[in-house]
Design goal:
This protein is mainly alpha-helical. Helix content is 80%, strand content 0%. It has one domain: MFS general substrate transporter like domains (Growth Hormone, Chain: A), CATH 1.20.1250.20. Helix 2 packs parallel to helix 4 and helix 2 packs across helix 10. It starts with a helix and ends in a 16-residue tail after the last helix.
């Protein structure tokens, strides 16, 4: 018991991998956050209706939902999670570069389809790796992973909003490629270095997967579909994602069309939303590790619905930005908690598939919301669309009540 090996096992694990993977996650979100800011400009140039704008994001989320499941299967089948994360970084940035060449609606849909595939390869690899490396601190480390996305989504609107004061959106898309490519190369290099440093170790990021027969794997996968806890958490997360995707798609449109804000001010408003989420994520993740997932999720969902209603009622007053910040705080607080909760409901040997399944279900929810919001906005107005979003987060909360409990628990791998 006093051997060096035992002492090393008891020593706290370095958070180096957390910062590295979280930084990579940020790069996958940078381009998406940029696109949300460009949507109002693209919509005006192409003469798009609210429904057509919403359908753009519906396609991206739908393709992402479909690609999540095979992405998760790929992670569990071959391992090599570091290389898969690196591939995702490239796959996200390249289609956005092609948008500079698009001059019609259908080419734009092709580009966002490619983005949807690449962006959702990241999560099964990254989240399963972090959960595997830090089993007792899943809520906290996944909150840091989410913060990487929040940082990128906070900085991107400011940077791009400032660039739009001097350049067209097509020029900005081209300029925006350069730092993404440079940082993607750096992330690839660092992931490779980390793999070499941990070569042969139990927790190596690029370790190969355990060999299993196809019938065994399919049997285990079917057990996930019958996992009541996992499916309830995933469905609740899907309605939360409906709220998020609708808000991110149409809040910039509302600010540009209804309030006549400049691209820079729209960028500042979106940054406020993300900074609040950045602050909330580690707080919620830590509290959920200590108090249980259910309590944190329920309170966050109730307050998110209330803040969305408050945002709509604030209208053109100075309190509007205040409510945007509160929406961001509570909406993003629950994201890492739901992810940690889902991982705990999944056998370890199916962690990648479990994450892929959860993100596939949430992606379906996220794909429905922008199109429905657009239809509602065209039929009534944008304000009614925001009330619809408040309803989706309220329904997500109802599903949480059917969960067996919110306590943190460990699930053993399925028997071979």
């Amino acid at each position: 018991m006093n051997s060096p090996t035992a002492s090393a096992a008891a020593a706290p694990r370095s958070f180096r991998e957390v910062w590295l993977i979280s930084a990579g996650h940020g790069f996958t979100h940078w381009y998406t956050a940029t696109f949300y800011l460009l949507l109002p400009l693209i919509g005006k140039e192409l003469g798009l209706s609210f429904t057509e704008i919403g359908f753009i994001m519906t396609i991206q989320h739908l393709v992402g939902a479909i690609s999540n499941l095979p992405g998760g299967i790929l992670v569990d089948a071959i391992g090599k999670r570091g290389y898969l994360m690196a591939a995702s970084l490239f796959w996200v940035g390249f289609p956005y570069a092609l948008m500079a060449l698009t001059h019609n609606y259908w080419m734009l849909l092709v580009c966002v389809t490619l983005v949807g595939i690449g962006n959702n390869l990241w999560h099964p690899a990254a989240i399963s790796a972090l959960a595997d490396h830090y089993p007792e601190r899943k809520g906290l480390v996944l909150s840091f992973h989410g913060m990487g996305g929040n940082v990128a989504e906070s900085l991107a609107p400011l940077v791009v909003g400032a660039l739009l004061a001097w350049f067209s959106w097509r020029t900005v898309v081209v300029i925006n490629i350069v730092p993404g490519i440079v940082m993607a190369v750096l992330i690839v290099a660092m992931l490779g270095a980390l793999s070499i440093a941990k070569a042969g170790g139990e927790h190596a990021v690029n370790a190969g997967a355990e060999s299993r027969s196809t019938s065994h794997y399919l049997r285990d996968f079917m057990s996930l579909l019958k996992n009541k806890a996992l499916m309830l958490v995933s469905c609740s997360a899907a309605f939360r994602t409906m709220t998020q995707s609708g808000l991110l798609t149409f809040l910039p449109v509302y600010l540009a069309y209804e309030l006549n804000y400049s691209p820079f001010v729209v960028g500042v408003s979106m940054t406020v939303l993300q900074i609040a989420g950045f602050v909330a994520a580690p707080i919620a993740g830590h509290l959920s590790d200590k108090m249980g997932r259910r309590r944190v999720v329920i309170s966050s969902m109730v307050l998110t619905a209330a803040m969305i209603v408050g945002m709509v009622l604030a209208g053109r007053t100075v309190f509007f930005i205040f409510f945007i910040a509160l929406v961001g705080f509570f909406l993003y607080a629950m994201r890492p908690v739901l992810q940690a909760w889902a991982v705990e409901c999944t056998p370890k040997n199916l962690a990648g598939t479990g994450v892929g399944l959860q993100f596939g279900i949430t992606g379906l929810g996220g794909s429905v919301s922008p199109a429905l919001f657009g239809i509602i906005a065209d039929s009534f107005d944008l304000y009614t669309g925001f009330y619809f979003l408040a309803g989706t987060i309220a329904f997500a909360n109802v599903l949480v009540f059917f969960m067996p409990n919110g306590a943190v628990r460990q699930v053993k791998p399925a028997a071979a």
